[in-house]
């Protein structure tokens, strides 16, 4: 197979508005009848893709399989020197169960060994990322140099972005080796895979030094990253000839993510301190960088004999003195030297299990899903433990805030209530780092299909009645040093600040009807 493909993407937008309509009749609410402030805005975007591709498939006696593909992709989003990228891929398979030495085997019904290697590209950047561009600005770009100008000053221009003509495709190279198997006439089926993925030149727009001046934002190929993992899936189905049938299927996967390399220009954009030289290289991409806590100050001796930190006192969080300019603890809690890598919100293990059963006209199914080995930033503690420090007016609070430290409750591990934050206790630290592990019943359903003779009498081919519930069980770690204290450890970005609430429970009653 050989071919080519081209795509052209164009958008144009325009909007206008004007305020103060004098008429209550909506028939007259046109722009020309408004008398207040008005504005007109417009925008547009355009980019092109061009791809040449080919694919080759070969099969010998249904036992030996070979496939190869080649793509040559181009995008107008990149500079002229790097608009195209070459992305080859190849895979091979050996259906071992078709060999003569397994043809009479009564246990192994299917066995296939496979391996693959390939590259693909990513061009997910804004149009114009390679260009330096300016905008007119009527506020803040005109200056009275002489100091005696009067009246309105003319508009000026300011730089918004610095172009990078050397931008190139972000490229991911992945190798995989796997085994598919079926046993006992396909009653037991499954697969196991090991993969290694390397991403080169991740597209990123880092923050920049203030000395560069306005418009220092620049898209770069910033980082190289590796992912290594293993995935296992296995299932079982019962004898389909009986009235009661069931099937169960489970999967589990493990992934290790590591930043392999960073250009010097962006080494500390992902976290880390230049003074300590501990950038994110060697750590997962989604890692936390912050302070290590050591409990609550519970006595004046602890306050007096701890490292110096502004705002320390009874009932306040104590931070560990990790290092100083000489690499050793220096008796001072310092922003540059006492932070370190304290966790990652990427789970090390993800798993799921599904179960389905049928008995005559009844059916039942459920699906469980969970993760383990990750750390999440429990922002819910800001609501519950820091009563009025962080815009708390109008919020309810868990009753555990009543157990906060006080002279009458000196053994509490919850900071004393306060209206101010002199100890900067909302900073990223291990105090907020908790287990993100969970196991959830995602879906459970029970249904009944009306017998065909009954549904046909009312003009239906099939009538299926069911009740379903989603997210009704949420198991999480509730004991130990890193137990999760919030409502729900599941969060897309690993931070409960943006979504501190549980996923809603859903209940449904429904009919599936066909005629």
Descriptive overview:
Strands 1-2-3-4-5-8-9-10-11-16-17-20-21-22 form a 14-stranded antiparallel sheet. Helix content is 3%, strand content 46%. The protein has 515 residues and is mostly beta strands. The chain is globular and about 95 Å long. It contains 3 helices and 22 strands. The two termini are 42 Å apart.
Please give the order of strands in the largest beta sheet.
Answer: 1-2-3-4-5-8-9-10-11-16-17-20-21-22
For the termini, the CA-CA separation is 42 Å
Computed structural class: mainly beta
Rounded to the nearest angstrom, the radius of gyration is 31 Å
Order of helices and strands: EEEEEEEEEEEEEHEEEEEHEEHEE
Number of helices: 3
Counting DSSP E segments of at least 2 residues, the number of strands comes to 22
Outline: globular
């Amino acid at each position: 197979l050989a071919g080519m493909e081209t795509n052209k993407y164009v958008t144009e937008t325009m909007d206008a508005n004007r305020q103060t309509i004098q008429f209550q009749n909506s028939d007259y609410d046109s722009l020309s009848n408004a008398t207040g402030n008005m504005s007109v805005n417009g925008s547009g975007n355009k980019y092109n893709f061009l791809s040449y591709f080919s694919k080759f498939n070969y099969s010998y006696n249904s036992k030996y399989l070979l496939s190869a593909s080649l793509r040559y992709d181009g995008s107008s989003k990149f500079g002229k020197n790097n608009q195209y990228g070459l992305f080859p891929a190849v895979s091979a398979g050996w259906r071992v169960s078709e060999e003569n030495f397994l043809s009479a085997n009564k246990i192994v019904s299917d066995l296939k060994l496979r391996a693959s290697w390939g590259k693909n590209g990513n061009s997910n950047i804004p149009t114009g990322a390679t260009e330096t561009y300016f905008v007119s600005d009527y506020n803040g770009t005109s200056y009275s140099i002489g100091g005696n100008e009067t009246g309105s000053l003319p508009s000026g221009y300011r730089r918004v972005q610095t172009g990078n003509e050397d931008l190139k495709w972000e490229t991911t190279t992945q190798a995989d080796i796997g085994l598919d198997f079926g046993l006992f006439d396909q009653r037991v089926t499954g697969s196991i895979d090991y993969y290694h993925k390397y991403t080169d030149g991740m597209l990123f727009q880092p923050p920049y030094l203030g000395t560069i001046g306005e418009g220092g934002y620049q898209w770069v190929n910033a980082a190289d990253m590796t992912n290594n993992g293993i995935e296992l899936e296995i299932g079982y189905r019962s004898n389909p000839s009986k009235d009661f049938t069931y099937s169960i299927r489970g999967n589990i996967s493990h992934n290790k993510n590591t930043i392999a390399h960073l250009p010097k220009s962006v080494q500390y954009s992902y976290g880390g301190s230049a003074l300590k030289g501990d950038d994110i290289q060697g750590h997962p991409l989604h890692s936390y960088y912050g302070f290590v806590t050591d409990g609550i100050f519970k006595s004046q001796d602890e306050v007096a004999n701890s490292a110096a930190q502004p705002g320390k006192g009874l009932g306040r969080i104590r931070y560990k003195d990790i290092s100083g300019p000489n690499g050793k603890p220096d008796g001072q809690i310092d922003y540059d030297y006492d932070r370190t890598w304290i966790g990652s919100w990427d789970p090390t293990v993800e798993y799921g299990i599904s179960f389905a059963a049928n008995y005559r006209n009844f059916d039942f199914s459920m699906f469980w899903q969970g993760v383990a080995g990750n750390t999440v930033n429990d922002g819910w503690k800001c609501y519950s433990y820091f009563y009025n420090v962080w815009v708390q007016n109008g919020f309810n609070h868990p009753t555990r805030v009543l157990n906060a430290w006080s002279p009458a409750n000196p053994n509490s591990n919850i900071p004393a209530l306060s209206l101010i934050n002199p100890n900067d206790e909302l900073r990223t630290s291990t105090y907020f780092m908790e287990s993100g592990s969970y196991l959830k019943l995602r879906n459970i359903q029970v249904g009944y299909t009306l017998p065909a003779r009954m549904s046909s009498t009312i003009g239906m081919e099939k009538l299926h009645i069911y009740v379903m519930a989603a997210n009704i069980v949420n198991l999480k770690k509730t004991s130990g040093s890193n137990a999760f204290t919030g409502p729900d450890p599941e969060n897309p970005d690993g931070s409960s600040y943006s979504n501190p609430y549980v996923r809603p429970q859903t209940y449904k009653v429904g009919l599936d009807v066909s005629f």
